[in-house]
Specification:
By secondary structure, this protein is an alpha/beta fold. It has helices at 14-22, 47-57, 73-84, 89-92, 103-118, 135-143, 163-172, 195-207, 226-229, 231-239, 270-287, 294-303, 306-337, 345-349, 361-371, 391-402, and strands at residues 29-30, 96-102, 126-131, 147-152, 154-155, 160-161, 178-182, 211-216, 243-248, 260-266, 354-356, 373-374, 380-382. The longest helix has 32 residues, at 306-337. The site of (2S)-2-hydroxybutanedioic acid (LMR) has 6 residues, from loops. Keywords: Aminotransferase, Pyridoxal phosphate, Transferase.
């Protein structure tokens, strides 16, 4: 038995973490997985999370019973307000269904599964994914029988957005196609459309009756401002674009291991939302039955208490500002000190956890093999892996491989 099972390659992102951990080299640098590190390269437990953990620990009323199938109601309601905005018409009109999921990956999966069952496809089920995108997007949609196809997004010539190509693809796709959009801090490129560009994208999506499948894993991380990073999603909702949003608290609350996320499906009216919720409940029941409680309780406390919410916003700014400072320092080292050939302005223009350096797979490999600097082959670096102690080492080695 199982002799015919083919050997699968290791995950392209998590294999880097394993290789980094096994490497005894003192100056090794991990720029692989998108996980925040402080200036001493340590995982950072947000002070507000420490505080709410203590509150939960001392709460004698809590038990270990099952949560409802769609999750902790005070968590999902607050999570919906966070992404859609507290006065969103999609909430006041009672036409949003929010389901607690196993982080952003679980939200993507449940959203994809729901589409695979109930979306009125115009032809074969297909999802349009940006080229490039988070590698897992491809696997998630394939798993539920939806074929990923790519739309132009990143232009290697400008190391920026291929806006014309993107719009062209939205126009050329058959009506009622489904497009996956990164709400902010595009992974892996760090290249986001401007607000003006989002407006054009939304208009074409509306005209072509496309479906917007938003993935929002970095709210607050891009700009340090939760509302600013939710701008595109809120704008699409106001315009009446049919959409869903996948939400994760892994990055912005530093709750990677708790797997706390949500799927929000905005429907045309509350009656439809009731039917959507009933089917999401059926799907969730057979997949995970009931979502885990701990992370949802933590986030719920933060979102539902004005004081804790302010503390969280301060913690988010701490992370976002450190990353932005690293962008400026890397840019300064490359352009002013090392005089590295090429234009490096994209380092400061890109946004969020990642920067797409523009180096090729050969150069990326050189960094891994010669300098013990771990990054994905596409040249993506997690900015959070850089700090005041290792940034010069990285800049010098980047300089070496591009010369
Ligand atoms: C990443 O892209 O590094 C993160 O989103 C972690 C993951 O799950 O891949």
């Amino acid at each position: 038995l199982w002799q015919e099972v083919p050997l699968a390659p290791p995950d392209s992102i998590f294999k880097l973490t394993a290789a980094y951990k096994a490497d005894p080299f003192e100056k090794k640098v991990n720029l692989g997985v998108g996980a925040y590190r402080d200036d001493d390269n340590k995982p950072w437990v947000l002070p507000v999370v420490k505080k709410v953990t203590r509150i939960l620990l001392n709460d004698e009323t809590l038990d270990h019973e099952y949560l409802p199938i769609t999750g902790l109601p005070e968590y999902t309601a607050a999570a919906a307000k966070l992404i859609l905005g507290p006065s969103s018409i999609a909430l006041t009109e009672g036409r949003t269904v929010s389901v607690q999921t196993i982080s952003g990956t679980g939200a993507n999966h449940l959203g994809a599964l729901f589409l695979s069952r109930f979306y009125t496809w115009n032809g074969a089920p297909r999802i349009y994914l940006s080229n490039p995108t988070w590698a897992n997007h491809h696997a998630i949609f394939k798993n539920v029988g939806i074929e990923p196809v790519e739309y132009p997004y990143y232009d290697p010539k400008t190391i920026g957005l291929d806006f014309e190509g993107f719009i062209g693809s939205l126009r050329a796709a058959p009506e009622r196609s489904a497009f996956l959009l990164h709400a902010c801090a595009h992974n892996p490129t760090g290249v986001d459309p401007t607000e003006e560009q989002w407006k054009v994208i939304a208009q074409v999506i509306l005209e072509k009756k496309h479906y917007a499948f938003f993935d929002c894993a970095y709210q607050g991380f891009a700009s340090g401002d939760l509302d600013k990073d939710a701008w595109a999603v809120r704008y699409f909702v106001e315009l009446g674009v049919p959409l869903l949003v996948c939400q994760s608290f892994a990055k912005n609350a530093g709750l990677y291991g708790e797997r706390v996320g949500a799927l929000h499906v905005v429907s045309a009216n509350s009656e439809t939302a009731t039917r959507v919720k009933s089917q999401l409940s059926v799907l969730q029941r057979s997949e995970i039955s009931n979502p885990p409680s701990h992370g949802a309780r933590l986030v719920s406390l933060i979102l539902n208490d004005a004081g804790l919410f302010e503390e969280w916003k301060r913690d988010i700014r701490t992370m976002a500002e450190r990353i932005i400072a690293m962008r400026h320092e890397l840019h300064r080292l490359l352009t002013q000190e090392l005089k590295t050939p090429g234009n490096w302005d994209h380092i400061v223009n890109q946004i969020g956890m990642f920067s797409f350096t523009g180096i090729n797979p050969e150069q990326s490999k050189g960094l891994v093999e010669q300098a013990h600097i771990y990054l994905t082959a596409n040249g993506r670096i997690s900015m959070a892996g850089l700090n005041s102690h290792n940034i010069r080492y990285f800049a010098e080695n980047l300089d070496k491989v591009v010369r």
